[in-house]
Amino acid sequence: MTNKKTTQNMTVFTLKEAAAYLKISDSTLYRNIKKNKIPAKKLGKQWRINETALNNWLMGKSTNPNTVVKLEIKDKKSTNKLRFIDLFCGIGGFRRAAEKHNMECVFSSDNDKFVQETYSHWYGDKPHGDITAFTESEEELNKIDDFDVLFAGFPCQPFSYAGRNEGFEDKTRGTLFFHVAKILDHHKPKALVLENVKGLKSHNKGETLETIRETLKEMGYTLFEDIINSYHFNVPQYRERWFCVGIRNDLIQNSIDSFKLNKGNMNLKPELHSILDNNINSKNAQKIPLFELDRIRYHFSNMKHFENGRVQHDNSRYAPETKKGKHGVYSFLKPDKTLRFHIGDVAKTQIQEAYYVHSNTYAPAIIANRRPKLWDIQRFLTVRECLKLQAFPEDLEFPVSDAQAFKQLGNSVCVAVVESVVKDMLNILDMAQSKTQLKQYG
Ligand SMILES: C[S@@+](CC[C@H](N)C(=O)[O-])C[C@H]1O[C@@H](n2cnc3c(N)ncnc32)[C@H](O)[C@@H]1O
What's the CATH architecture for 5-78? Predict the structure, then answer.
């Protein structure tokens, strides 16, 4: 029994039938499809490949992809959702933004069991574990369902850079980015969106980012990157992150090269009080410890006695062999109302020791082991307030401890920023789609 169909005077095969016709394995055929050597189209869950494309491949000739584009445009109307995979998914900041744009998640992965609990609770899917298991062989790579867009906020690691002429596998081996690259190379999706800390730009003297760029370009993607700050999206958190949108070259038209990612509105000045929960009682908000409150009080009652308002604190409070005991602790109220504590004098090398914000200003980036403390209301931000700082809905409940929830929020992306980046990516793809249609009908 065969699914072979004849459409528009062409015989159309499924993947298995086509592999048997060519006398090659399914995975070799799949690889050729992904590398665009044999144009094919997925209708529902089945690949469709026309006989002409197979014969051309056997004869070493290329096939005009427009024969497939015709099928694609017809099919777009029935399944108009773009499919994505959510790698290093955390609590699904990318997923939330992509779903708002009507995209469909077909695979997610994170190897942290507490993250998996939160993700399952919020989205109903348990993420797969260690992503490295999915890149061990073609068979494993094929287990990731077909998709259009890859999202990944991968941990930043140095590459042992050995030379420009190496292929990406050698250049990136031993890092988690290597596994992202393997998945991209195998599946060749239409687009990718990567996120990382701002420091990626200077990491390993810039070589880490350069290797990432080279790898993605070598795999056939045009890149649009920038540092984007959540503060410019009306969120009172100064979170600067590197974002990179990659679009497969065959979908790009020259005029898109100058496209710039939206960086938000620089005139906005959001303040923390906009996300503060005023009904909080002392039980569910953690107070700043007494020792720290004492230092803060000391600062305000003594700042007028110190030149430039830089207050020197009592050294004897700190063990003499520690840096604080040796070099002294100083505090300073900045014009933006943040109160900074330093070890050492300004004239010498100073190390920031503590940082308190005010409800009339913004928070620094929340990270896994740090959440903002406000000197004016003498408490830390709560889980619910940190949800708002990352632009998640505030009524989401965490099925894990508060400590895990703060860690997961600190690792997450700010949803408001990702929504904008996804919108930009869709705009570029839309421009590309109209280009394909123009080419076909023009
Ligand atoms: C910076 S966070 C990304 C957070 C995510 N973008 C979000 O919105 O919440 C990186 C995540 O990668 C996960 N991770 C690290 N190594 C991994 C691996 N080998 N396989 C799968 N996930 C991994 C960590 O558990 C962590 O949740």
Answer: Orthogonal Bundle (1.10)
Q: How many CB atoms lie within 10 A of CB 104?
A: 13
- What's the CA gap between 190 and 34, in Å, rounded? 11
Nearest atom of ligand 1 to the alpha carbon of 151: 6
| Spatial separation of the C-alpha atoms in residues 328 and 20, rounded to whole Å | 77
Encoded amino acid at 398, one letter: F
Domains 5-78 and 83-268+414-441 share a fold: no
Q: What is the pLDDT along the chain (442 residues), one digit of tens a residue?
A: 344 443 444 577 888 888 888 888 888 888 888 888 888 887 666 788 888 888 888 888 777 665 553 444 334 434 578 999 999 999 999 999 999 999 999 999 999 999 999 999 999 999 999 999 999 999 999 999 999 999 999 887 666 655 555 666 777 777 899 999 999 999 999 999 999 999 888 888 888 899 899 999 999 999 999 999 999 999 999 999 999 999 999 888 766 777 899 999 999 999 999 999 987 765 668 899 999 999 999 999 999 998 888 999 988 888 888 888 888 899 999 988 999 999 986 666 678 888 899 999 999 999 988 889 999 999 999 999 999 999 999 999 999 999 999 999 999 999 999 999 999 999 998 876 665 544 443 3
Pocket test for ligand 1, best of 99, 100, 105, 111 (most atoms within 8 A of CB): 111
Around Cβ 359, how many Cβ atoms within 10 Å? 16
- For residues 278, 403, 422 and 228, what is the CA-based torsion angle, rounded to 10 degrees? 80
Report domain extents, the chain: 5-78, 83-268+414-441, 272-411
- Asked if residue 130 has its Cβ within 6 Å of ligand 1, the reply is yes
Residue 192 alpha carbon to ligand 1 centre in Å? 16
Architecture category of domain 83-268+414-441 in CATH: 3-Layer(aba) Sandwich (3.40)
